[in-house]
Amino acid sequence: MSKNSAHPEGASRTHSIATAAQSVGVSVQTVRLYEVRGLITPARTSGGTRRYHAEDLARLKQISELIEQGVNLAGIGIILELEAENIGLREQLAEQSAEGTKERIRE
């Protein structure tokens, strides 16, 4: 399962790793650690430079908040995976509900 959705080239404004780190009050090395641990997957330029979208910044903020609450990186990984799974299940349920509504209308 992907940690972040794919970011189409040019879909939104991107930020450097330094700007991303500064926006959440952590060091550049900390952001790199989060990437190594699989907690965040930034887009890359053709030259390999990390580029962070608004969704990435929100995820970094969430990670930072969980750390402040005392959750370790392994726990954060589990929390983020469960949240992604929950979103997927809610989408499936909404889709099934919409299909059921269409069936009832046809009857």
Index terms:
107 residues; mainly alpha; two-stranded antiparallel sheet; 2 strands; 62% helix; 4% strand; elongated; disordered N terminus
Supply the helix-strand structural class.
mainly alpha
Number of beta strands: 2
User: Radius of gyration over alpha carbons?
Assistant: 17 Å
Please work out how many helical segments DSSP would assign: 4
Question: So what's the overall shape?
Answer: elongated
List low-pLDDT spans. 1-7
What's the arrangement of strands in the largest beta sheet? 1-2
Mean pLDDT: 88
Distance between the termini: 38 Å
Q: Helices and strands, in N-to-C order?
A: HHEEHH
Q: Which quaternary structure do these chains form?
A: single chain
What does the largest sheet look like? 2 strands, antiparallel
**Beta content:** under 5%
What level of helicity do the residues show?
A: 55-70%
Could you explain the architecture of this structure?
- By secondary structure, the chain is mainly alpha-helical.
- 62% of the residues lie in helices and 4% in strands.
- Strand 1 (43-44) and strand 2 form a beta hairpin.
- Helix 1 (17-24) crosses helix 2 (28-36) and helix 1 crosses helix 3 (54-68).
- The longest helix is centred in the C-terminal third of the chain and has 34 residues, at 73-106.
